[in-house]
């Protein structure tokens, strides 16, 4: 979700500090992007390389291509690649070059969103935490220390690769908060990006006043209805984030967006002269380790056309594939013809594209979400299903209707696999609750968590000593926090837990406590428990996931690789966990003696954990079925 500057390239290869870009050039006019002198109607999909594994990349890209996409879009995750100043990591899941080469090998375009600030429900928005310690820095503002860092990261590291820079994140949403420092920062960022002279167009999403020649674009679910259009007649209409569902948070239910709804709004956007649509996400993947932002689940955009495991989600994937095929069949007339629109009913309208050569394409739109409409167009009758668009490539015959799903419906299944129910296989290591005299840092005020841990840990103990007052007969512990969660102890006694949520940023913990006659240690935050167990890899090639439904809150590792945070004890309004299955990529496993380690805060039952296989099973298609 962001304001972005992006390049569409055929090939981006960086080897030994040198680079080459395939393709003649990329430009644009008021109708579309132009690649090698030809206007392009482009469908793109977001797939983030660190949210999957190198072993998964070829299959993900191939399925995207088969689904009718021509562009793969990804962020570049600065905090992964430069965790400390001057220390770089492009190995394993972080191998951006390998990912781009795989896109190239399959004949697709790449769209890079370099940032440096990316948001993306990613920890610290993609910024490395060491920026926090630079003297005088103010992020995302007309601030010299911040601008120097951005200038260096872009010109020193990316200009050699002739790659573009993604500079901000839906900045217009917060620009007013920076008062006089906001607008000049926008102008500076655009000028710096264009100054890279990459020879490709630059884009800012959700920024109406994007300076020329930067293209302003739309993000959201209904850009055909909400987008005001480019801020210049010389810029094309582009939809840079079409949310295929929405990210999920702990304590929240999944957001289900139907295939019909996505198809309707894509068709409407194209009917209104749109020429570029990117699906965010096409494959969401997994927030491995501690990479997810506050309260965001480990599973990311699981409802996308390719689910968390890389399996095809039907009918969403197939219905959009058919839409892309219909659009491509019409693309020459759509890009070359003159568009007109007119009413064909109270809530119905027609958009028509006509070429001088006689080519004609029509979109018949029924905006009524409840009733079927019978309309007249070109002396013929057409029945339009509720909230649907029919595409007529010759202005006579319908080849696609957004509400008519011809793709079969699939259901994801889990098959019980390895059980971790053997007591002797587990070892338990409990953290010792520290006391005041053992603390390494003492202060008269509470110290901010992130400043102390430097984002290296989710956990920090706060310990205070309290001398009981004989006149206080009912002592009460009261904690006000702007953090995420707190555990409370008085001495060795546990008094409970409290937490906020994605939408509630602060919380209060309050509980009666028992105090000793002497001094009592009051300890706040977390108790940490590690639970290792050995297991063999399950047979077959199906994706596998840990079923942690009997655990509480913590983090899980397989063979030293974190598969992410889990929070089973945080229930939704329906009384169920937001996520119980946690993806274990096959590449994390070895044939035997795999080591599972759990870091559990609140307690659970590890004997009922299982490693399950994930498969897809077809179900009978029927009209009115809730599609995903």
TrEMBL record:
<dbReference type="InterPro" id="IPR041392">
    <property type="entry name" value="GHD"/>
</dbReference>
<keyword id="KW-0326">Glycosidase</keyword>
<dbReference type="InterPro" id="IPR001944">
    <property type="entry name" value="Glycoside_Hdrlase_35"/>
</dbReference>
<dbReference type="InterPro" id="IPR017853">
    <property type="entry name" value="GH"/>
</dbReference>
<keyword id="KW-0052">Apoplast</keyword>
<comment type="similarity">
    <text>Belongs to the glycosyl hydrolase 35 family.</text>
</comment>
<feature type="signal peptide">
    <location>
        <begin position="1"/>
        <end position="19"/>
    </location>
</feature>
<dbReference type="InterPro" id="IPR031330">
    <property type="entry name" value="Gly_Hdrlase_35_cat"/>
</dbReference>
<dbReference type="Pfam" id="PF01301">
    <property type="entry name" value="Glyco_hydro_35"/>
</dbReference>
<dbReference type="Pfam" id="PF17834">
    <property type="entry name" value="GHD"/>
</dbReference>
<protein>
    <recommendedName>
        <fullName>beta-galactosidase</fullName>
        <ecNumber>3.2.1.23</ecNumber>
    </recommendedName>
</protein>
<keyword id="KW-0732">Signal</keyword>
<feature type="domain" description="Beta-galactosidase beta-sandwich">
    <location>
        <begin position="349"/>
        <end position="405"/>
    </location>
</feature>
<keyword id="KW-0378">Hydrolase</keyword>
<keyword id="KW-0325">Glycoprotein</keyword>
<keyword id="KW-0964">Secreted</keyword>
<dbReference type="GO" id="GO:0004565">
    <property type="term" value="F:beta-galactosidase activity"/>
</dbReference>
<dbReference type="Pfam" id="PF21467">
    <property type="entry name" value="BetaGal_gal-bd"/>
</dbReference>
<dbReference type="GO" id="GO:0005975">
    <property type="term" value="P:carbohydrate metabolic process"/>
</dbReference>
<feature type="domain" description="Glycoside hydrolase 35 catalytic">
    <location>
        <begin position="32"/>
        <end position="326"/>
    </location>
</feature>
<feature type="domain" description="Beta-galactosidase galactose-binding">
    <location>
        <begin position="534"/>
        <end position="594"/>
    </location>
</feature>
<dbReference type="InterPro" id="IPR008979">
    <property type="entry name" value="Galactose-bd-like_sf"/>
</dbReference>
<dbReference type="GO" id="GO:0048046">
    <property type="term" value="C:apoplast"/>
</dbReference>
<dbReference type="InterPro" id="IPR048913">
    <property type="entry name" value="BetaGal_gal-bd"/>
</dbReference>
């Amino acid at each position: 979700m962001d304001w972005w500057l992006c390049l569409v390239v055929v090939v981006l290869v960086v080897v030994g500090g040198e680079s080459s870009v395939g393709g003649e050039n990329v430009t644009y006019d008021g109708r579309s992007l132009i690649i090698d002198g030809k206007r392009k109607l482009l469908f793109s999909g977001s797939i983030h390389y660190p949210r999957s594994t190198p072993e998964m990349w070829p299959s993900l890209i191939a399925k995207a291509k088969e689904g009718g996409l021509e562009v793969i879009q990804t962020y570049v995750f600065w905090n992964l690649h430069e965790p400390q100043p001057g220390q770089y990591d492009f190995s394993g899941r972080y191998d951006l070059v390998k990912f781009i080469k795989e896109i190239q090998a399959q004949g697709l375009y790449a769209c890079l969103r370099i940032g440096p600030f990316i948001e993306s429900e990613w920890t610290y928005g993609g910024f490395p935490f060491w920026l926090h310690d630079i003297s005088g820095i103010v992020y995302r503002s007309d601030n010299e220390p911040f601008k120097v860092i951005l200038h260096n990261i872009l010109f020193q590291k990316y200009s050699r690769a002739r790659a573009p820079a993604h500079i901000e994140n839906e900045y217009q949403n917060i620009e007013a908060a920076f008062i006089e420092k906001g607008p000049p920062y926008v102008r500076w960022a655009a000028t710096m990006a264009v100054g890279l002279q990459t020879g490709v167009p630059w884009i800012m999403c959700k920024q109406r006043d994007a300076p020329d020649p930067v293209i302003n674009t739309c993000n959201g679910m209904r850009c055909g209805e909400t987008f005001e259009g480019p801020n210049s007649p010389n810029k094309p209409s582009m939809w840079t984030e079409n949310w295929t569902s929405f990210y999920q948070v702990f304590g929240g239910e999944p957001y289900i967006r139907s295939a019909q709804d996505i198809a309707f709004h894509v068709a409407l956007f194209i009917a209104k002269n749109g020429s570029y649509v990117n699906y965010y996400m096409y494959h969401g993947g997994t927030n491995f380790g501690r990479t997810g932002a506050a309260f965001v689940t480990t599973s990311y955009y699981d409802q996308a056309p390719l689910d968390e495991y890389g399996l095809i989600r039907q009918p969403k994937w197939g219905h959009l594939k058919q839409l892309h095929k219909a659009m491509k069949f019409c693309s020459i007339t759509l890009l070359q013809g003159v568009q007109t629109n007119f009413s064909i009913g109270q809530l119905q309208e027609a958009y028509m594209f006509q070429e001088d050569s006689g080519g004609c394409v029509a979109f018949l739109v029924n905006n009524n979400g409840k009733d079927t409409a019978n309309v007249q167009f070109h002396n013929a009758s057409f029945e339009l299903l509720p909230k649907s668009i029919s595409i007529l490539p010759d202005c006579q015959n319908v080849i696609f209707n957004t509400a008519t799903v011809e793709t079969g419906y699939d259901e994801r299944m889990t098959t019980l696999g390895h059980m971790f129910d053997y007591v002797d296989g587990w070892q338990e290591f409990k953290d010792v609750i520290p006391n005041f005299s053992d603390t390494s840092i003492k202060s008269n005020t509470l110290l901010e968590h992130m400043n102390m841990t430097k984002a290296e840990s989710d956990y920090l103990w706060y310990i205070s000593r309290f001398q009981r007052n004989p006149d206080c007969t009912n002592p009460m512990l009261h904690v006000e926090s702007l953090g995420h969660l707190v555990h409370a102890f008085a001495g060795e006694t546990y008094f409970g837990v409290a937490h906020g949520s994605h939408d509630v940023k602060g919380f209060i913990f309050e509980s009666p406590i028992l105090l000793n006659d002497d001094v009592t240690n009051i300890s706040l935050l977390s108790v940490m428990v590690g639970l290792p167990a050995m297991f063999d890899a399950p047979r077959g090639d199906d994706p596998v996931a840990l079923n942690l439904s009997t655990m509480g809150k913590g983090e899980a590792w397989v063979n030293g690789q974190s598969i992410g945070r889990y929070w089973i004890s945080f229930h939704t309004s329906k009384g169920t966990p937001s996520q119980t299955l946690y993806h274990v990529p096959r590449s994390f496993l070895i044939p035997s003696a795999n080591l599972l380690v759990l870091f559990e805060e609140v307690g659970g039952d590890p004997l009922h954990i299982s490693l399950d296989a994930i498969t897809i099973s077809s179900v009978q298609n029927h009209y009115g079925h809730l599609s995903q």
